[in-house]
Amino acid sequence: QAKEQFIPVLSYRTGPYAPNGTPWANGYIDYMKLVNARGGINGVKLAWEECETGYDTARSVECYERLKGKGASFVQPLSTGATFAITEKAPVDKIPVVTIGYGRSESADGTVFKWNFPIAGTYWVASDAILQAIAKKEGGGMDKLKGKKIALVYHDSPFGKEPIPLMQERARMHGYDLQLLPVAHPGVEQKSTWLQIRQARPDYVVLWGWGIMNTTAIKEAQATGYPREKMYGVWWAGAEPDVKDVADGAKGYNAVTMQHGAEPQSKVVKDILAMVHEKGQGTGPKDEVGQVLYMRGAMSAMLGIEGIRAAQERFGKGKVMTGEQVRWGLENLNLTQPKLDALGFAGVMRPISTSCADHMGAAWARIHTWDGKQWKFTSDWLQADDQVIKPLVKSTAAKYAAEKKLEPRTPADCQS
Amino acid sequence: MLYRENGQFKTSYRSDQQIFPIRQDRVVIALFALVAFVLVPALASDYTLRALLIPFLIMALAALGVNILVGYCGQISLGSGAFMAVGAYGAFNFFARIDGMPLLGALVLGGLCATAFGLLFGLPSLRVKGLYLAVATLAAQFFADWMFLRVKWFTMDTPSGSVSVSNLQVFGLPIESDISKYLFCLSVLVVIGILAKNLVRSAIGREWMAIRDMDVAAAVIGIRPMYAKLSAFAVSSFIIGVAGVLWAFVYLGAWEPAAFSVDMSFRLLFMVIIGGLGSIMGSFIGAGFIVLLPIFLNQFLPVLAGLVGLEISTVGIAHAELMIFGALIVWFLIVEPHGLAKLWSTGKQKLRLWPFPH
Amino acid sequence: MTATAAPIVLDVNGIEVIYNHVILVLKGVSLQVPEGGIVALLGGNGAGKTTTLRAVSNLLRGERGEVTKGSIELRGERIENLSPAQLVQRGVVQVMEGRHCFAHLTIEENLLTGAYTRSSKGEIAASLEKVYTYFPRLKTRRTSQAAYTSGGEQQMCAIGRALMAQPSLVLLDEPSMGLAPQIVEEVFEIVKDLNARENVTFLLAEQNTSMALRYANYGYIMENGRVVMDGPARELADNEDVKEFYLGMGGTERKSFREVKSYRRRKRWLA
Amino acid sequence: MRRPFGEVVLEVENISLSFGGVKALSDISFDVREHEVRAIIGPNGAGKSSMLNCINGVYQPQQGAIRFRGREFRHMNSRQVAEMGVGRTFQNLALFKGMSVLDNIMTGRNLKIRSNLLLQALRIGPAEREEIRQREFVEHIIDFLEIQPWRKTPVGQLPYGLQKRVDLGRALAMEPQVLLLDEPMAGMNVEEKQDMCRFILDVNDEFGTTVVLIEHDMGVVMDISDRVVVLDYGRKIGDGTPQEVRANEDVVRAYLGTSH
Amino acid sequence: MGFFLETLLGGLMAGMLYALVALGFVLIFKASGVFNFAQGAMVLFAALAMARFAEWVPAWTGLDNKIVANVLAFLLAGAVMFVVAWLVELLVLRRLVNQEAATLLMATLGITYFLEGVGQTIFGSSIYKIDIGMPKDPVIVFDQVFQGGILINKEDVIAACIAAGLVALLTLFFQKTGTGRALRAVADDHQAAQSIGIPLDRIWVIVWCVAGVVALVAGMIWGSKLGVQFSLATVALRALPVVILGGLTSVPGAIIGGLIIGVGEKLSEVYIGPLVGGGIEIWFAYVLALGFLLIRPQGLFGEKIIDRV
Ligand SMILES: Nc1ncnc2c1ncn2[C@@H]1O[C@H](COP(=O)(O)OP(=O)(O)OP(=O)(O)O)[C@@H](O)[C@H]1O
Ligand SMILES: Nc1ncnc2c1ncn2[C@@H]1O[C@H](COP(=O)(O)OP(=O)(O)OP(=O)(O)O)[C@@H](O)[C@H]1O
Ligand SMILES: [Mg+2]
Ligand SMILES: [Mg+2]
Q1: Residue D89: nearest ligand to its CA?
Q2: Span of the secretion signal (chain E) (predicted)?
Q3: What is the DSSP letter of D89?
Q4: Which of C22, C66, C148 best tests the B interface by mutation, with the highest count of B CBs <10 A?
């Protein structure tokens, strides 16, 4: 039997968040197909099975339990709720939890969260980047935020509440006024939220939504005449499904990107089109290849797979890796620019290198803006401020460790 | 004539009032207990235990609680998710704030928190009835959702509002492995199941049913509607609360309020209706149906499609699962409107007559 | 008038009825109702009278019962598969046991709903007047919701509602239940009246045996899901057993209810 | 001949009850003596059932007083009335449809049960013994009413007549001092009515239960009742022994009709 | 003051939209005593049909006129809803005559799952749009009177007018045709209704069909506001307190209930919300409804709950 590395895929193609979950899953799977078409990881082919979660925590846990039995190398829960639940199980099962651009922000601290990998960015990175972008727009440094009014319209769930500590911290530092406006799941009714915005007239609105909540928010902004140029979305509120229907109404709306944006011109997309879709093996519609959430899926797959590759470097090339070995690989990821170029991610993202202490590996982001037809980058690279984020991560992770009575990992443990 | 009580005469009312008066039933139950307590832990895979049996047991317990309120006492409740949440967060606070709080203690205290909450939102039932009461219970649901998201105290000030527990122990035994978790849930279910069964076949159970079937007549023969309704709310929310603690502590380990959303309430209500209102057994069958069937379909459909040479996509499976699930619900209701438990007992009745048709 | 002279309207032939797939209730019941006849169906509690009527009017399905054997013909047409509404259109209406008034509707609305299958406003108004003259009590209570009327008033309402459909065959299930004596008499007078003047045929299940046999021309006695005896009403009324068990007569005198001591006897035609 | 009657157990004094415009009862007074069978008759809609509803607290009369063994009550709820020993059957069956015959009758014993929720859940000690004691009592009633074969049948599936019997059984299980019967024999044939009369008279004889009976079958009323109240659209038009009532012209006109 | 009026107005508009969904519940409850859990799914299903037909019709026929395409799509979606009604009656309701409300409720749940599955299989599960040319940009009135003026959403106003028109039409239908009485009779007692010749099958097809069309209109308006996507089904949950507050059997009750709930929840969110952290409108709506129920247990216009022995 050929050697195969098994990767469980938890996705949601039904339910309230299907329009956003589907392109992500398409990208994720297409990328794995691409890896196989390129000959696997040093000859080890990938195998995977998709399990539909419907964005439901209990269902996700069931999927996780089902697929982990098949030899999971790592798992991507793809929902903050499920991440919380699976985080508790991972150390026992010895399966790394990879959360690219979601999950708990403090899990960037690898000395406490040994099994969690929020590679390439957490919500604190996202919110910090947004604040920086706003400051830039105001014409300079963070001090320009002083006296401004910023409203955070957020999905009323752990996902939506993640950025609050950072934004509050920043508010303390720079003296802006933060207004918190929760929106109940799934976010189809936001009239009162936007009435409040109309009344308070904040200088900026930060939108922390997912699924239909984003579209609704932008439509309500249009209906109440709030300028879209002053709205900044998280990277889950900055993809085509969010704005497509509003089209011109969303013109000027900004969102932070998790490094990548819509990348139809990138090499990896061209490869996928050539080696997967041309062969009739594409997962979703061809014209969506390279869109924002599709790219997020592809990139998420890539980071996990590179973890496997890194593990192979140490534990034996061409072998199937265990979860523990993959964990080491993910922790010692060093994606240099040449490596990224080779993978086809040139221009899509920046180098990333993780370590025992830092499971995130990079804190870069950009802003892109909807011009009525497509997403266009409108900012330079922004880097979240370590000075702000590090202490926050440390203290929150320490609190978690204290609650769980966890010993921080020793340097020796880090080496193993 | 495999299943007959012929020849089994009851010589005392005590023996007629046993939980399972028919010998065959007792044998089956004994076998069942043997399988559940011995064979299953020995044979079942990790996945079966963790992803199927444990959630099934916990949901069965919750459904049992819901059935007491909805099925026995006739008070429609769509707030069960909230009662679970109150149980879970209540127990969490006791567990995390008080050093050395044993799991069982937290379990009971969590249940009691749910009882208090249940009583509070049960008060409108003294005036509001039927579907209208659903509004009161939904108010409880949405209020609890909101409360655990917004009031930081309940979640020990975690920024995201989600909390977790670990190091579970009962009498010094760790509840970490799948088997220990399974046995723990099973034991809780069995104990509460027996207590609940005792209740529903005692005076209080008859009071609940009387209130459900005709409250004016019940009052005339001396049943206090207030006492009956509130006691049903109390008992039911206690059980649901305990189930909530188990769901959070044992199954999820870490959770957020969305784990007990209104979907959960609906699902629990469906379990008791499809299983059989006013039947302990029905709660179990209903929980099995609603928890396990979709998972079964999800795994079985691709195989089935493979047999006929088709390949269906994940979406296709998910949608087919919805359709088949919906169709099955309707089909079972048409076959037996009073739920699966009734279907089961009709089956037994047929077996009793077997081999004669009538 | 004898049962054989007139053409048969309703011919029930050896039907079996099972409830819930397991409870066999009717075990081969046959009966005929001649055009323009009044046929009484007698029998104790649980004999299966109501079930027989439900089988005819096809209201069994709602009770989870079904006819598993035998046939039911209405004027030569098999009707087992017609819906109750189609039967009403063919003139068959049942007055259900236990009143079944529409609780939230007023008495008058109840009655008007009875005329659902008819369209002529004028005729309906006339029928309504007729029902009110039959039951003046209903007229005084016309605006109150049916649920808030007394048991007897509801019974009148149920009967009146059925009459509003202008039926040709009425299945009356215990019409006298809960009615004051003189109203009982009136009901039977109405039956006789409609029968004589409008040639309406009646099949009535009735516990008030003496009344029933007085007004009916033919009777069937049921027990335990079977017809155990049938014959012209006059003959039945003279039968010794019928007299003892259904008319409460010891010898020729009516026995006092106080005097009957031996309530544990149960002589039956069937074992 | 007539037995001697004790003192007045139940006294109804100037009761008036109206619903919106409908005067269901106006200024009704009568009394019921220990151990008698007291019938209430009257045309449909006369207010008989409403009278019973007033007595056991389902309706609150607007005026007047009801005295039970000298205790007066006007705003007493059903529970309190039941506690004082008043049992009741209903004209429109008010059984607990989802429960078996046995359970239905057992509910009648609920007032007698003293064990609490916890004991019942554990079903130990007193709770268990009590349950069995009540069960024995109920089995007597089941025997007495000859409904043994249906013990475990859900009452909804019983034929009408048997349901009436279960209703009576439930009331009897309360061991009432006063039993209010609202048309207990509707829907029965003569033979069954004879049985019912037997039951009622036996209860009356053996337990000394006072019976208040509403019935439209004049045969029954004349034969088994000791005194009769006649209501006519809310008013009382007659009161006395069956013979007296039967001779009363008002009563004949309003209710009995000429044929009786 | 200006802001208060604006909130009030916003609440009224939102309330009208809830009422539109609530209406579907009321219709079916009136006609069969069934609480139709599937109403939300029907809204979604109808909206999906409408959205996709509006895409497909031009593709099939080569027509390029938006109005024609929308009208045709509406008609086709209406036809689809008719088929749904007919199938529901044939396969489900007919077989559950005279069963308890809980059973029927459960059956409608089965229908919900089924519709969700079928709908997404046929019509897809992405976001689709219904573009019936609703104006999206706001108008500001009274800007001389109040600072900042009062913002009015033309889209909402149009939607509210459509809702009001629909209610008037339905009220008329039930008053004038006498069907209303038959419906109430059916809801009271299936068997008795059958026994006097009310054809339950036909009545149910008609009512489900009307409810389907109401769902279609609701779906169209909500869909044009939000985009058509699975979450549309959840508006049913927002409409629930409306139905119950108005009374389960009352068509005008749905409107009044809608207005009360709409206004109540917006005002509470805007004025009380900030004090307690926001996000209170859902439970506030339910608590508000509960408050009314404590005074009138049958809802504002519902029929009195009868309990009599
Ligand atoms: N819905 C039902 N489900 C099960 N069994 C039933 C049902 N309805 C009636 N039965 C049974 O059918 C038998 C006949 O009942 P039916 O109601 O026809 O009697 P009946 O002659 O009308 O009696 P009564 O004079 O008391 O009304 C009874 O034994 C009863 O238990
Ligand atoms: N809750 C109520 N609301 C309105 N009217 C009522 C109510 N209860 C009884 N009535 C009216 O009061 C009158 C007396 O009713 P009641 O039920 O006492 O009559 P009854 O003597 O028992 O008649 P029957 O012999 O028909 O049972 C009737 O006209 C009835 O419509
Ligand atoms: Mg009968
Ligand atoms: Mg009465």
Answers
A1: 4
A2: none
A3: -
A4: C22
pLDDT confidence of residue D21: 81
D71 assigned to some structural domain: yes
User: pTM, whole model, 2 decimals?
Assistant: 0.93
- Which among A225, A247, A190, A204 is positioned nearest to A371, based on CA atoms? A247
The domains found in chain B, sorted by start residue, are 46-353 (1.10.3470)
D19 lies in some domain: yes
Residue B2 has pLDDT above 60, yes or no: no
CA angle, residues B250, B253, B258, in degrees to nearest 5: 110
Does D36 share its domain with D137?
Answer: no
The beta strand positions in A253-412, using DSSP E, are 254-257, 334-335, 352-353, 364-370, 375-377, 382-383
Band (B190; pLDDT cuts 50, 70, 90): very high
Long-range contacts at B214-219 (CB < 8 A, ≥ 24 apart)? B214/D94, B214/D95, B214/D96, B214/D97, B214/E309, B215/E307, B216/D58, B216/D78, B216/D94, B216/E307, B216/E308, B216/E309, B217/D90, B217/D94, B217/D95, B217/D96, B217/E309, B218/D96, B218/D107, B219/D57, B219/D58, B219/D77, B219/D78, B219/D79
In whole numbers, what is the pLDDT of chain C averaged over residues? 88
Which residue, C37, D217, E269, is CA-closest to A196?
A: E269
pLDDT of residue C263: 45
Regarding whether D181 and D170 lie in a shared domain, the answer is no
As a whole number, mean pLDDT of residues C50-75 equals: 92
Check: complex ipTM more than 0.90: yes
Orientation angle between helical segments E200-226 and A212-224, nearest 10 degrees: 70
Nearest to B69 by CA among B237, B299, B254: B237
Report pLDDT digits (tens) over D220-234.
998 899 999 999 988
Average pLDDT, chain B: 89
- Would you say residue D90 lies in a domain? no
* Domain encompassing residue D130: 95-175
pLDDT in tens, E204-225: 999 999 999 999 999 999 888 8
The neighbour count for residue A305, using CB atoms within 10 Å, is 24
CA of B140 to the centre of ligand 3 (A): 45
Q: CA A269, CA A298: separation in Å to the nearest integer?
A: 9
| Average pLDDT over every residue of A140-150 | 91
Query: Which of C108, C110, C135, C150 best tests ligand 2's pocket when mutated (most atoms within 8 Å of CB)?
Result: C150
Mean pLDDT, rounded, of chain E: 89
Radius of gyration of chain B (CA): 21
Do D10 and D69 fall within a single domain? yes
Q: Name every residue whose Cβ is closer than 8 Å to that of residue E13 and which is 6 or more positions away in sequence.
A: A191, E153, E156, E157, E159, E160, E262
Of the residues D175, D199, D223, the one at which a domain ends: D175
Q: Do residues D80 and D4 share a domain?
A: yes
Q: What is the CATH number of the domain that holds D54?
A: 3.40.50.300
| Amino acid letter, A22 | T
Amino acid (one-letter) located at D111: L
| Percentage with pLDDT > 70 across chain C | 92
H helix and E strand count, chain A: 15, 14
Q: How far is E309 from chain D (nearest CA, A)?
A: 7
Tokens representing A393 are 């991560």
Same domain? D181 vs D209: yes
Within-domain flag for D208: yes
Tens of pLDDT, residues A228-247 = 999 999 999 999 999 988 88
Whether the CB-CB separation of A69 and B46 falls below 8 Å is answered with yes
The answer on D155 and D39 residing in a single domain is: no
Distance B61 CA to ligand 3 centre (A): 42
Interface test with chain E among B76, B330, B332, B335, by most E beta carbons within 10 Å: B330
User: What values do phi and psi take at B48, rounded to 5?
Assistant: -60, -45
